Amino acid sequence: MYNVPNENGRFGDFGGKFVPETLMIPLEEIEEALAKALADDEFKAEYMRILQEYSGRPTPLTFAPNLTKKLNGAKIYLKREDLNHTGAHKINNAIGQALLAKRMGKKKIIAETGAGQHGVAAATVAAHFGMECIVFMGEEDIKRQELNVFRMKLLGAEVVPVYSGNRTLKDATNEAIRYWVQHCDDHFYMIGSVVGPHPYPKMVREFQRIIGDEAKRQFLEREGKLPDIIVACVGGGSNAMGMFYPFLEDDVTLVGVEAAGKGIDTPYHAATITKGTKGVIHGSMTYLLQDEHGQIIEPYSVSAGLDYPGVGPEHAYLASIGRVRYESVTDDEAIAAFQLLSREEGIIPAIESAHALAKAVQLAKTMRSDQTVLVCLSGRGDKDVQTMMKYLKGGNDVAMSNRN
Amino acid sequence: MQCLTVTKPMFIPFIVAGDPSPDITIELALALQEAGADILELGVPYSDPLADGPIIQRAAARALRQQMTLQKAIELIPEMRKKGVKIPIIIFTYYNPVLQLGEESFFALAQKNGANGVLIPDLPFEESEPVRKLGEAAGIPLISLVAPTSKKRIEMIASNAQGFLYCVSSLGVTGVRDTLPETLNEFLTEVKRHSRVPVVVGFGISKSEQVSMLKNYCDGVVIGSALVQKIEQLSDRLQKPDEKEEALAEFRRYARSLTAPLDETVQ
């Protein structure tokens, strides 16, 4: 029976609470409120109602006929988290945490963001629930994701640029935690992924498992069986965790896809499980990219949402027990998949999700036509169109050269 | 630490090893001793210092550019002793560098080089048992922290405290603060009631007026960011051979001026 984390927030050796003393009581308060909320039918009903009425759930399961035909292998299905309100799975978690914050009497939300998707989700639910929202975002990501920055401001959030480190998600998270330490008496820290100190990895999993719960039901209805392989991208790993969790005790191959950037044998990647070692980051024991002295190494990926040197502790655990396979996909492979899905199915995926798709394409080709692959299409690619335009002008136009 | 029979409130400065250079760190430690420091907190630079504000973040970045590591920081201790630093030295480090060095290797190294204590700001009581035990075996106390939010945790932490107990003055990260919370005295009094070891206070203390106000409620004050900021200002001069002595003297005078109230009679 799969039953982690334990009462200390441990997934095997991973997880825990490695935070300054100031945050221990605030974390305990969240833990208590979460336990009560998850046991409360009224809370669950309200969460489900908002997911349905506000975010448009359930999201569809879409068969990808053209892609399947082109690859001449396994049937490819997409779980359409891109069709959520705000364009990604991040809203599931933001709604759950905002409801919890409301129960705890907190009216101010702190969030960190990489690609901007979680920041947008946090700003959105803050507007919906009449809360204040302050979003920390690395200056580099602000440049990469201009549109999402504007979106957050439009939604009434304050966006604070972060200038430390590599100026990406890791640094935004540091700054969000520092701000929380100072304002923990009246602010709720809304983490965007299955990372951070206990109970965050568990909480975010609980608020994202709706992806896997729905997908399981939909897939059984459609195919009369479970998929052979499920593929999801992993930065911090919340869409993957939400998708995988309900399938952990089933006979389904689960594949998490990390960002290989310019290649896992170069210094420019974000393949934390593939290449990282055990350590502590953002309050949690997990795998991370670090040097021999324990200094954290800046990751790299074309995708701002996967550009993170750590990974959720539950993924570290699932890797260590061999239940989930973690592989990686390069920038170029992801960009090719980004174009492929756009052209074949009329769906522009987020560049993060394109990593999962690229791996699914590789796997499906080697499988039989009676087999199935389910891809978690975690977000839509509108936010990436500008970046992709720049990339493809640089001579990387895989789709054009592949045109048939 | 035998020194901790407190007769007057202690001055506990914090500096970052390797800022602006390993050699100058040794001279700064000596200057602090001359300025009346009772214990030195030697900070190990870390890439992601969650409990630190911008001043110490910048110092850590400078020290990392000097290739400072946890091991090299510990190995500065015997160098400091050679130059005449006699006060106890506490290693202040985040947990991840300790994990990478290996917890046992860390304590072996700390013991061999004569470290007098260890403070790990991101290792709360619940996660600290293995480290605490290794420290006990090595005779190196693991210094605990309590915060204004600790409330019901104060008794648990204080009754298990080793060496001294570090009170975080206010919510937030390290830095220079103009004002400290009005409730700080009550918090310190509450902590002292539970603690069998000296109770010191830090985070934000940057003025002699604050030291003057606090000295009646605690056994010592930790001053970090204010000193590190001074080092940042003096950095260029500290690294010029013909200006170094004057810069060190200025640093010493600054440390003295901050802590002068500690020498006045305790009321």
From TrEMBL, chain A:
Cofactor(s) the protein requires to work: pyridoxal 5'-phosphate
Enzyme class: lyase
Family matches, as InterPro entries: Trp_synth_b_CS (IPR006653), Trp_synth_beta (IPR006654), Trp_synth_beta/beta-like (IPR023026), TrpB-like_PALP (IPR001926), TrpB-like_PALP_sf (IPR036052)
Reactions catalysed: (1S,2R)-1-C-(indol-3-yl)glycerol 3-phosphate + L-serine = D-glyceraldehyde 3-phosphate + L-tryptophan + H2O
PTM sites of type N6-(pyridoxal phosphate)lysine: 90
All residue ranges annotated as the Tryptophan synthase beta chain-like PALP domain in the record: 56-379
Pathway the protein takes part in: Amino-acid biosynthesis; L-tryptophan biosynthesis; L-tryptophan from chorismate: step 5/5
Molecular function in Gene Ontology: tryptophan synthase activity
EC number in record: 4.2.1.20
Gene3D superfamilies reported in the protein's UniProt record: 3.40.50.1100
PANTHER family hit by this protein: TRYPTOPHAN SYNTHASE, TRYPTOPHAN SYNTHASE-RELATED
Function noted in UniProt: The beta subunit is responsible for the synthesis of L-tryptophan from indole and L-serine.
Subunit structure comment from the entry: Tetramer of two alpha and two beta chains.
Record protein name field: Tryptophan synthase beta chain
Organism, scientific name: Parageobacillus thermantarcticus
Automatic annotation (TrEMBL), chain B:
GO molecular function: tryptophan synthase activity
Pfam families cross-referenced by the UniProt entry: Trp_syntA (PF00290)
UniProt KW keywords: Amino-acid biosynthesis, Aromatic amino acid biosynthesis, Lyase, Tryptophan biosynthesis
EC number: 4.2.1.20
Reaction(s) the record says it catalyses: (1S,2R)-1-C-(indol-3-yl)glycerol 3-phosphate + L-serine = D-glyceraldehyde 3-phosphate + L-tryptophan + H2O
Function recorded in the entry: The alpha subunit is responsible for the aldol cleavage of indoleglycerol phosphate to indole and glyceraldehyde 3-phosphate.
Location of the active site: 41, 52
Organism taxonomic ancestry: Bacteria, Bacillati, Bacillota, Bacilli, Bacillales
Enzyme class, UniProt record, top EC level: lyase
Organism name: Parageobacillus thermantarcticus
Name the UniProt record assigns to this protein: Tryptophan synthase alpha chain
Chain ranges passing through the membrane: none
Matching CDD domains: Tryptophan_synthase_alpha (cd04724)
Record NCBIfam families: trpA
Quaternary structure note: Tetramer of two alpha and two beta chains.
Family label: Belongs to the TrpA family.
Cellular component aspect of the GO annotation: cytosol
Pathway recorded for this protein: Amino-acid biosynthesis; L-tryptophan biosynthesis; L-tryptophan from chorismate: step 5/5
